[in-house]
Design goal:
Blueprint: E1 13-19, E2 22-27, E3 33-35, H1 41-51, H2 55-65, H3 67-80, E4 85-89, H4 95-102, E5 106-111, H5 114-122, E6 127-130, H6 133-136, E7 143-149, H7 158-168, E8 169-180, H8 182-194, E9 210-211, H9 214-224, E10 226-233, H10 242-262, E11 269-276
Parallel strand pairs: 4-5, 4-7, 5-6, 7-8
Antiparallel strand pairs: 1-2, 2-3, 3-9, 8-11, 10-11
């Protein structure tokens, strides 16, 4: 059971909702929402080992759903850092890391799931550390780019992880974060509950234990010593279902336009690009 905010350390909080049996609260100080009940590190290891044990399933899902997203994310990364040494934290089966290597980055991965990491090593030919970022014990200022793509929401101590990220980034190095947009998923959850939809994921608080807003994320990164370059709606996954994929892409285009004109973040995910100051 958490007693303080995993982002700013404050003990002031207000109750929000019980999501999938897990109490979720909002920090009064920094604004992030977080699950009060959190798994142990060993439970997390077991979960992801079991989750990624079916390689054939994930090979089909990830190789079909993620490339469209990865190409657009990588294009933006290259806009800021066109080459260098890149570490992908939570690299999963290595699809993004492999794509980054193909365009010229020197790539290393970090992955807590042994089956996923071994797939990335043996099938993708990547150098992958099995475990947490802290366990990898990289040298100071080892990397030009650090990516955490749909990872920070799963980490029990996200602030601690980002301090470690800052240590291993070179001065002027690029941090790339992608997380679910809490405001989008909060509104969706309330609407679907009001409609009495029984089989929807909601905030997924057994899996996503931290829920970030744009403000909480950018304010926290600034205090940690990062300079924010860009915050934008994240590109969607594409699953090969023409109609639904078209809707996702159309909504993303609208979200980008709204962000450009009004600076509002209405996308279902947030992408942040920041430099180590």
């Amino acid at each position: 059971m958490r007693t303080s905010c995993p982002w700013c350390g404050s003990e002031e909080r207000r109750f929000l909702i019980v999501d999938d049996g897990v109490p979720v609260v909002a920090c009064v100080s920094c604004g992030i929402a977080y699950a009060l009940v959190i798994p142990t590190l060993e439970a997390i290891r077991r979960y992801y080992t079991e989750q990624f044990s079916d390689e054939r399933h994930w090979e089909v899902v990830l190789s079909s759903a993620r490339p469209w997203l990865h190409r657009r994310l990588l294009s933006r990364i290259m806009h800021y850092r066109a080459q260098g040494e890149l570490v992908d934290i939570g690299c999963s089966f290595g699809h993004f890391a492999s794509m980054a290597r193909r365009v010229g980055y020197k790539v290393v991965g970090v992955e807590i799931s042994e089956p996923a990491a071994m797939y990335a090593r043996t099938r993708m030919g990547l150098s992958v550390h099995i475990g947490t970022l802290e366990e990898a014990k990289f040298n100071d200022e080892s990397f030009d780019v650090v990516t955490l793509i749909d990872v920070l929401e799963h980490i029990v101590e996200p602030a601690k992880t980002l301090h470690e990220v800052r240590r291993i980034l070179r001065r002027g190095g690029l941090l790339v974060l992608r997380v679910p947009n809490f405001k989008f998923h909060w509104i969706k959850t309330l609407l679907l509950r009001a409609a009495k939809r029984k089989h929807f994921i909601g905030l997924d608080s057994r899996n996503h234990i931290n829920h970030f807003t744009v403000r909480s994320l950018t304010d926290g990164l600034t205090k940690m010593g990062f300079k924010i370059l860009e915050v934008r709606p994240g590109a969607p996954n594409i699953y090969g279902r023409r109609f639904f994929d078209a809707l996702r892409i159309a909504y993303w285009a609208v979200a980008l336009l709204v962000n450009a004109v009004f600076k509002w973040q209405i996308g279902n995910s947030i992408e942040v690009f920041a430099l180590k100051a």
